[in-house]
């Protein structure tokens, strides 16, 4: 599928609502589920998305637009959210994510990106040269990846309860 900025923005704009509909006001215990040691709860996933809004997508886009490949992107701490926002109620995290995502999308729109801009390259610390289109496509795919993670984690709460139907539920297979 070819990258189209307007399509990515459509996906990105929906993520806070999807997470809110799925997670807000869940009964106790659901938001604290994880998939085992070293995995994240739904609340931690939302905190991670907030952290990425502040330190990853638009900051890297701005570096790319300002300096091209002359400046390497700052490394992204994928676990930075574990040191900030701990203990915040899930509802507050969802509200924060919705607000920061709306702000990010407003700032993205203000960049008035052209097709030429989307082809510009920056320097990723691990991958080397990447285009702005690749960065923005990854932002959208990253959201979808974490939506899948949250639904898989929630489904895992009923892993034993579904009994023999586990065999037919892909979401419960590792």
TrEMBL record:
Residues 12-150 form the DinB-like domain. Gene3D superfamilies: dinb family like domain. This is DinB family protein. It comes from Deinococcus multiflagellatus. It holds the Pfam family DinB_2. InterPro entries: DinB-like (IPR024775), DinB/YfiT-like (IPR034660). The lineage of its organism: Bacteria, Thermotogati, Deinococcota, Deinococci, Deinococcales.
């Amino acid at each position: 599928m070819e990258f189209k900025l307007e399509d990515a923005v459509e996906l990105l704009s929906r993520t806070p609502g999807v997470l809110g509909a799925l997670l807000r006001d869940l009964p106790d215990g659901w938001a604290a589920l994880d998939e085992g040691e070293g995995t994240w709860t739904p609340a931690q996933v939302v905190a991670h998305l907030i952290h990425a809004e502040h330190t990853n997508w638009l900051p890297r886009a701005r570096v790319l637009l300002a300096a091209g490949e002359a400046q390497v992107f700052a490394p992204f701490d994928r676990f930075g959210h574990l040191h900030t926002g701990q203990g915040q109620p899930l509802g507050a995290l969802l509200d924060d994510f919705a607000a920061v995502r709306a702000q990010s999308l407003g700032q993205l729109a203000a960049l008035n990106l052209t097709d030429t801009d989307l082809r510009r390259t920056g320097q990723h610390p691990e991958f080397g040269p990447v285009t702005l289109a690749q960065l923005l496509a990854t932002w959208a795919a990253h959201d979808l990846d974490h939506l899948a993670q949250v639904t898989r984690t929630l489904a895992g709460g009923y892993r034993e309860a579904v009994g023999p139907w586990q065999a037919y539920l892909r979401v419960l297979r590792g």
